Write the structure tokens for this entry.
Amino acid sequence: MDNNYLNNSSNNTNYNSDNMSASQTSAGAQQTTGSTQQNAYNPYSGQQNTYNAYGSQQNTYNAYGSQQNNGYNAQQAYNPYQQPVGGKKPKKARTRKGGFGATLGKCAAIALVFGLVAGGTFTGVNYAGSKVLGITQQSGESKADSSDSSKTVQKATSTGSAQDLTDVSAITQEAMPSIVAITNTGTVSYQTFWGTQQQESQSAGSGIIIKQDDKYLYIATNNHVVANAESLTVQFCDNETVSCEVKGTDAADDLAVVKVALSSIKADTLKQIKVASVNDSDELTVGQGVIAIGNALGYGQSVTNGIISALGRSVSVQDETTGKTVTNNNMIQTNAAINPGNSGGALLNAQGEVIGINSAKYSDTSVEGFGYAIPMSDAMPIINQLIEREKVDESQKAFLGIQGQDISSDVAQAYNMPEGVYVYQVVSGSAADKAGIRQGDIITEFDGQSVSTMSQLKELMTYYKSGQKVKVKLERLGNGYEEQTIEVTLLSQSGVTSNK
């Protein structure tokens, strides 16, 4: 409060026209002033005696029922923020301590405690696990090895092995010379407004150099890679391209062999190419690392890797060229990318050995990583047979003596019939007639080889001479279809004179 104002109040100046006097007691001292006393009622039950504000004593019973003695002539000036004498202490306003900094500090402390507890727990579990599993000893051995590494020459990595398959360059360099790209050139027909039109078409595939003799190089591939070919070419690892021809096919197992005359291959190319190493696929395990090499999308040789996802898968594949369905019940499933053009290529193990022939990929927008390969344990007996057997001279060719119709998978499913060749006519006096084959029978196997189409059966007959004996499996309708095996002695066509 302003000091001048207090001094003026102490001059006992009378501003009241009544010039009345009153007495005031404050802190044990009495003071008489010429002012008028006013008694005012306090609605909060506290009595208020008020003397003139200019130099008079003011006794006030405040809202808390306590008396407050204060005046402008008194030694103490009124302070509106001062605690009233004898009254209750007002509640202090709550203040937030610390603010954001304190909160941040608490969070840091909690995080520190949690980290210490978690770290201690992890260390304890790791130590206990190491003791139980005996890892501690191995760690010591590795330390010893590392300490001696500066004194020994590092061993070279084998070019035919990759334990974790993160780097397959060594395997690729060893295996790539045994893989070829195959180009199939043919003619396709299609319907237009002006009738049936034809045009030349090309398709790409892959092959594996599987054998070599004095005259030919033999390449294993899929049957659908070479089907309906008017001409075939192979491209080797040095990009040299030569013509080849089909040696033999097995449509039921989707296998084929093509041969290339050694005389048509340049000397430099012969030095670079290799015959593939083949491993028995019976020893494969799920999770084993694999590598796929092939002519993906016809762009040339490419490499992908993955693992064996499953074994013994049953897969039905429709040949896009012939429309026929081929089923294999013992396929290798892998997540290594198998793309169009990879068909006929190699699936390798970590030692660079061929364990399968890449054949198909499950194609669907909702599916990834479903590729299939034919195990070499199943493929090699058929491949060797295709290589070794020779087509017989036309004059010695055997004749079965039937006319047949293909029973595709769709027809078989629709009419509840087995897949195979439906016999709708038997030639009288033929080998089939004499063996007891009847109209309505469905041939499913010829001399141990599965048969699904009439064209396949005709192709097989080109390797048999008149007089040879073969076993034919067929399904005959009785009380449902029942399988029978009939032995047939093949005859030449010249002996057949009439139809049955």
About this structure: The first helix runs from residue 3 to 9. Confidence is low (pLDDT under 50) at residues 1-87, 135-159. The first strand starts at residue 22 and ends at 26. The radius of gyration is 52 Å.
